[in-house]
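Feature request, filed as a ticket because there's no other form

It would be nice if the structure record came with a short human-readable summary line next to the tokens. Right now we just get the raw output. Example of a typical job, pasted below so the devs can see what we mean:
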Amino acid sequence: MRCLLASVFLLLCITAGSAENDVEQALQELQTALAASDDELNSVWQALREAFNTPDVDRPPRSPDAWETALAAQRAWISFRDAQCEAEATAFNEEAMEPLVRLSCLQVMTDERTEQLKSLMRLH
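Raw output as currently delivered:
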């Protein structure tokens, strides 16, 4: 839902200006923002993997399946994110807006997942 709201806001901003140039610029900005979000997610994921695989003498040992469970959850989240953003993008009738909505959704959901992984890392 948050992705859809961000996408609608983006759509309103773009349609208020000159469409073609604004769409191209918005696409470029969203691609840059998504790349930065992906980089942060990957960095947090690597730190989480290290945390799972490094014994902590101050905590009880983790389940042997803990990392595999986290990995399965991440793979499921990627599938969910991609399907959710595709659904949101195709909900718009204007073909030119689909990539903007998709990228906006991917960026928002990636940022949210990064925060979830940071929370998980604090638990481990």
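Something like this underneath would help us a lot:
The longest helix spans residues 19-53.
The two ends are 30 Å apart (CA to CA).
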